[in-house]
Amino acid sequence: MNNSLSQKTTGMFRFIGLGFLEAPINLIQGKETKKNLSLILKKIVAPLVSFIFFIGVWQTGSQYLYNKEADYRIEKARQEQGDEAALLMKNCIQSGDVSCQPNTLPSPAQVKVSFFKLLEDHRLISQDKKAFKEKTAALNAQRKSEGKSIITYTGRPSFVDQIITSIKTVFAGFLLAIFIAVPIGIIIGLSETLRDSFNWLIQIFKPVSPVVWLLLVFMIVKTLTKDSDSDSSFIISFISVGLCSMWATLVNTTMGVSTVDQDFINVAKVLRLGSFQKIFKVILPSSLPLIFTGLRITLSVAWMVLIAIELLAQSPGLGSFVWEEFQNGANDSNSKIIVAMFIIGIIGFLLDRIMLAVQNVVSFNKNAGN
Amino acid sequence: MKFKLLTICLIALNLSFYSCGEKEAKKIAETKPSGSENTSATKLLEVEKPQLTFGFIKLTDMAPLAIAKEKGFFEDEGLFVSVEAQSNWKNILDRVIDGQLDGSHMLAGQPIAAGAGFGRQAELVTPFSMDLNGNGITVSNDVWAKMKPHIPSDTDGKPIHPIKAESLKPVIDSYKSSGKAFKMGMVFPVSTHNYEIRYWLASAGIHPGMYTRDNIQGQINAEVLLSVTPPPQMPATLEAGTIYGYCVGEPWNQQAVFKGIGVPITTNYDIWKNNPEKVFVMTKKFVEENPNTAIAVTKALIRAGKWLDTPGNREEAVKILSMPQYVGADEVVLANSMTGTFEFEKGDKRSMPDFNVFYRYNATYPFYSDGVWFLTQMRRWGQIPESKPTDWYDSKIKEIYRPDIWKKAASILVEEGHIPMTDIPETDGYKPETTDFIDGKNFDGKKPIAYINSFKIGNKD
To answer: What is the pLDDT, as a whole number, of residue A357?
Structure first.
């Protein structure tokens, strides 16, 4: 029984894309020591080594850039104001004074500090939010009884809030992409004539840059939401994300539907299935692996274009966080940007794993798409 | 497609409900006094719209907004205000006109241009002038090195200020002879910066280029090509070599010194002493629908301006502005210009007590004459393509500048004891004529045509 349970857990780990945890679990349970040790070496130690290597390269790189910029500043001070100023500049840089710090690629340590600073910041903002809620509770109760809209928090969103907003935007955009691309893909996939007639459209719109989509959506939504006080930036950004990212799903769905094995179609014919039944029982299931490959690409594209779109649409989220920090140009801005970069990367990776897991659940062919 | 339509329908539905509710609420508000408790000495107005969103660009002159929020002046008026950084001036203008922002920190020229026929047209009003001065012109290190031999210096070997554009002329000529166009950045076609850098260049006989009805690039006959770059990106654009200099507000001139990528050479205090810089703008529609809210906002902003010019408060202001949601630059950078000094070349820090004025000299009062100056410059450079009669200037500016709102707000503040009676100027809205310009020209807001005709470069009427 114990054995079947462990098999289940390892199966699940593999399922959600954490297959590398299988080996240490087996090892702890004392199974196939030699094989599992080599697996650990391959799946855990090697990535760890590469991680340390990465940090090392980053550290030396940032150190090199720091020194280069510092030397340049000292040299410039010497040329323009003499040796005394150069010495002053040197001392100033060594003392860690903010006013003369070289502004370049931050080191891993600086990024770590910024990360914790952002978490601390989130804690403070949450407290502030709570205080605001208490402060306005009486007023809001009164406004509610008078039928007015309630007063909402007026402070800025924290880093964590912005991550959540970004995920919401991507998710809404992704759903939009599914609702547009999958049905259209199936319809186009079923008929060669339609495929031929719409191909040009897909080929032309597919490579259009996110910025242009945003402007297009902006033009339309702006007119539609005219004379309203609502903030349309969320609507604009999620629709743009959806439109940018749906093409992979559309193309893959079309391809999946059009390349269904002729045998299956023949079977459907023999069984005299209706067209709806044919689509849902035969065509859709057998094209699912390709559709899901498309959806995975769509999700990663959605996450990728999000930053550019949020930045332009002024929609709160990671994109505007990165942009604001870039504009701030403060001493710790660069390291905050790098923190955001890692967060974006990690979330993108997790989203992809989730899609992989879903794909494994719904598709027949368990090996596809990995 | 279906989904999209559905969303739009849902939104539309929501909105119609929402706006009905709003009207209902207004009626109630008119009949019932607001019962919320108020601890400070302020007289609470019947505010029609307590939840507001204001926009700003990351510049130190947005300070009145940050201070009014952080010091609780907005809340004293029963206002709950969010302030949001925006990416550029065009965006701000669009969002205010479209109603996504209830009001905003704006370039003084923006509401004027929107009313006078250049760029997007809308009815905007200015009840509050945010500050005086606060801009600078910065050039790249390379240009500075080539300029320096042409600048007269004092006995200590330091350059004599104000530095005039004459010393830039040889550099432009040398760029021209090597076949390169001399490019400089400013922040917006109707920004103070555009008019200031043009004024500065033209006062030395350098042609900054003209606008016409069909060509709104503003580069016709230009010896210096001026182009638009959003303020916070100026240092980066200069560093990348896309432009050789720029005119921008703080902290982006000081940032250039700190990062060692450029040298500020002059400030707009030297170009026009105590010139108006940013204004607070709302739409005419908003002010008409929410008259008390407009007065309450102006009250809070006047208090913030006064707080900023109260000696000893600037250090705290710098701390507030350096928060990432406001300007976000390092405190040392902000402190440089906000605390009465301005650093030109690295190490050449000079005292400039009037570099950022938020309250003194009636800085918050929206003077018609200040607005007229912008109209004259728009005409001079061709943004207003046709000749206008003198009374057009007067009637146009009275549509946009609204000292009546300011006066109402200020007189309530006097009643409450927040400001003395003497802080309300006795004026018809026109400042007395002045020659406080870098070229010593005489400006009288009541004689705009004569002023326009007094320039060597530019349109004449």
So the answer is: 85
C-beta atoms of A230 and B11 within 8 A: yes
The single residue listed with the structure tokens 């965006």 is B91
pLDDT tens per residue across span B7-18: 454 444 444 444
Residues B159 and B215 in one domain: yes
Neighbours of B350 (CB within 10 A): 12
Residues B140 and B125 in one domain: no
Query: What is the structure's pLDDT at A70?
Result: 86
- Closest of A308, A310, A314, A305 to residue A348, by C-alpha: A305
Q: What is the tens place of the pLDDT at every residue in A137-188?
A: 888 888 888 888 888 888 888 889 889 989 999 999 999 999 999 999 988 8
Q: For residue range A268-327, what is the model confidence (pLDDT) as tens digits? A: 888 888 888 888 888 888 888 888 889 999 998 888 888 888 877 777 788 888 888 888
Q: What is the pLDDT of residue B404?
A: 94
CB contact under 8 A, A146 and B233: no
Contacts of B58 in chain A (CB under 8 A): 324, 327-328
Residues of A in contact with B187 (CB under 8 A): none
Residues B355 and B412 in one domain: yes
Q: Is B84 in Cβ contact with A314 (below 8 Å)?
A: yes
Q: What is the pTM of this model?
A: 0.80
Residue B58 has its nearest CB partner, among A85, A180, A327, at A327
The confidence score (pLDDT) of residue B167 equals 92
Q: A73 in contact with B at a CB cutoff of 8 Å?
A: yes
C-beta atoms of B328 and A77 within 8 A = no
User: Is residue B63 domain-shared with residue B156, that is, in the same domain?
Assistant: no
Q: Name the minimum distance, in Å, from the CA of A19 to any CA of chain B.
A: 38
Residues B140, B124 within the same domain: no
CA distance B27 to chain A (A): 10
CA B68 to each of CA A150, B13, B49, B301: distance values in angstroms, whole numbers, following the listed order: 22, 36, 17, 6
Same domain as B229, residue B103 = no
- Regarding whether B332 and B356 lie in a shared domain, the answer is yes
Alpha-helical regions (H) of chain A: 2-15, 22-28, 33-40, 46-81, 83-95, 108-145, 159-190, 192-205, 210-224, 233-258, 262-270, 275-277, 284-313, 318-328, 333-362
Question: Is residue B293 in a domain?
Answer: yes
Q: In the predicted model, what is the mean pLDDT of chain A?
A: 83
Q: Which residues on adjacent β-strands are paired with residue B351?
A: B341
Of residues B21, B329, B332, nearest to A328 (C-beta): B329
Cβ of A329 under 8 Å from any chain B Cβ?
yes
What's the confidence (pLDDT) of residue B296? 94
* Residue ranges for chain B with pLDDT beneath 50: 1-7, 9-40
Same domain? For B213 and B93 the reply is: no
Contacts of B12 in chain A (CB under 8 A): 224
Is A231's Cβ below 8 Å from some Cβ in B? yes
C-alpha to C-alpha distance for A270 and A249, rounded to whole angstroms: 30
CB nearest to A179's CB, from B3, B29, B51: B3
Report CB contact under 8 Å: B85, A324. Answer: yes
Residue A140 forms contact with B (CB below 8 Å):
no
Burial class (CB in 10 A: 0-12, 13-18, 19+), B39: exposed
pLDDT confidence bin for A230, thresholds 50/70/90: low
Task: Please report the pLDDT score of residue B123 as a whole number.
Answer: 93
Assigned domain for B429 exists: no
Output the six-digit token pair for B201: 């260049």
The domain spanning residue B199 has which CATH number? Answer: 3.40.190.10
Alpha helices per DSSP H over A146-191: 159-190
Domain hosting residue B74, numbered range: 41-131+276-343+350-366+401-423
Q: CA of B408 to nearest chain A CA: how many angstroms apart? A: 26
- A-B C-beta contacts closer than 8 Å: 131
**Helices within B155-207 (DSSP H only):** 169-177, 192-202
Query: Is A146–B91 a contact, with Cβ atoms under 8 angstroms apart?
Result: no
Terminal alpha carbon distance of chain B: 55
